[in-house]
Amino acid sequence: MSATDHLVIFDTTLRDGEQSPGATMTKAEKLRIAKVLEKLRVDVIEAGFAIASQGDFEAIKNIAETIKESTICSLSRALDKDIDRAAEAIQPAQRGRIHTFIATSPIHMKHKLQLGPDEVVEQAVRAVKRARNHVDDVEFSCEDAGRSELDFLCRIIEAAIDAGATTINIPDTVGYAIPEQFGETIKQLLNRIPNADKAIFSVHCHNDLGLAVANSLAAVVQGARQVECTINGLGERAGNASLEEVVMAVRTRQDLFQIDTRIDTQHIVPASRLVSTVTGFPVQPNKAIVGANAFAHESGIHQDGVLKHRETYEIMRAQDVGWHTNSLVLGKHSGRNAFRTRLLELGIQFETETELNEAFARFKALADLKHEIFDEDLQAIASDTRKTEKDGRFSLVCMQVCSETGVIPRAAVTLMMDGKELTVDAEGSGPVDATFKAIESLVDSGCNLQLYSVNNITSGTDAQGEVTVRLERGGRIVNGLGADTDIIIASAKAYIQALNLITVSGVRQHPQGADV
Asked: Does residue 302 belong to any structural domain of this protein?
């Protein structure tokens, strides 16, 4: 495709998506997702914010060393130290990009930056020039462009392009824009900025009013040629524009957009599942494209219509976005090689043979309990194996729960705690409550339980249950994830994993709020 008929997909799941409270990912998990994004044929992967932490820097560098087909990008503020750190992180990439930003709205310039407009323009130009000293591909973002004055946007963007910016991003940082107004902003910028033809214009929309995808598409209609988005719409607050929705809207409505992406849509559903499993953020059943009900028809009239002619009630094929992969792949008699091969097909590769052996043992144990093993089960096994905190303070040894009508539930839990095996029992209002109270009586974490969520991984009464536990302590939020055919054991695993995460030193700072 030429530049004029190609819509660039810039995925920021690993950066903006990770800023969702509790969605912090390990280096291995980031790489795992990056590999799936590469399979999706995402044009640009924003792998993180290099200066935010050593862990973020190492994750970006690891991805830059591994991914060959996508451009690898690091975010940076318009500061010398940020830009140099970003350049160092993406240095191994075959194609690298530095994405630098500065706020341009009156409210941000006055209250956050405490800089005047002239100073902001000067800093932006200096940042773009410094970034161009490192790489040819430089993106410049006007943070809070949705509330910025149009004349000032024209001024700073023209200066940034003159300084060497090749992509100009117009973010609706706080989700304030309305589609018609946002599209008009893009149109005005393209028409009024003399050197607009020398850069690709991009949009980055947040979903605070539920309009992120609509705003992004309105911008595309008016000439934007890059959309910044995330898998499942993951992101701060209400999230970002959803990659799958943007891609399939453009693909389905070619009569309106007359432009397309390079995305291999058959990998959309596997990518959605992986991000959901890694972050512990379940996908709602009625979520467009990737929700469990997205292609389900309950109404008799709808069922009859689909049976007679699919297009009566379906505007796209389920197979085209990857739903055909939701099929039985392995059983209790499957061997280790078949298990490894299917994991590789799903984009899952363990760093050591020990991890693979542990995962295979979990697979065999699950196959004894569950007759049919689906791809979702394999994803959960892989995630559970990777998220086992081998150096964590706590691990579950065994547990026994008693729940009987008319009797107060009790749980006896044995934990390995700092190398010592300890057992305690406690009562609760239910078996999960009793389990958590038993664990807390040993750990005394001081955490607040913010979320307890249960989802079935596949259908059927023998399905694994996937439990998400969100804990908060001292302003830090983490998600723990546990999976098991026994929902009480899954709950204990999730709680213990969250405890291990929240006690890890070297907390990743929030990039925009970090004092770095």
From this structure: no
Amino acid at position 401, single letter = V
User: Do 82 and 12 fall within a single domain?
Assistant: yes
Q: Residue 339 carries which DSSP code?
A: H
Q: What sections of 280-348 are H helices per DSSP?
A: 300-308, 336-345
Query: pTM for the complete prediction?
Result: 0.81
Find tokens 């994405």 and name the residue: 99
Please list the rounded mean pLDDT of every run of 10 residues in the chain (516 residues). Answer: 74 93 84 94 97 94 97 98 98 98 96 95 98 98 97 98 98 97 98 98 98 98 97 95 97 92 93 88 86 62 49 68 57 76 77 84 82 76 65 87 93 92 94 96 93 81 84 86 90 93 60 43
Structure tokens at 187: 């149109």
- Domain residues for the domain of 208 are 8-279
CATH number of residue 408's parent domain: 3.30.160.270
Burial class (CB in 10 A: 0-12, 13-18, 19+), 190: middle
Sequence-ordered list of residues with C-beta below 8 angstroms from that of 68, at least 6 positions apart, any chain = 38, 94
Q: Which of 428, 429, 430, 450 is nearest to 495 (CA)?
A: 450
Task: Please check whether residue 461 lies inside any domain of the structure.
Answer: yes
Structure confidence at residue 388 (pLDDT) = 54
Number of domains in the chain: 3
Phi and psi torsions of 101, nearest 5°:
-145, 155
327 touches 375 (CB < 8 A): yes
In the block, which residue shows the tokens 């559903």?
A: 269
Q: Are residues 194 and 103 in the same domain?
A: yes
Same domain, 348 and 257: no
In this prediction, residue 353 carries a pLDDT of: 84
Strand order from edge to edge, sheet including 394-404: 394-404, 407-417, 420-427
459 and 331 within one domain: no
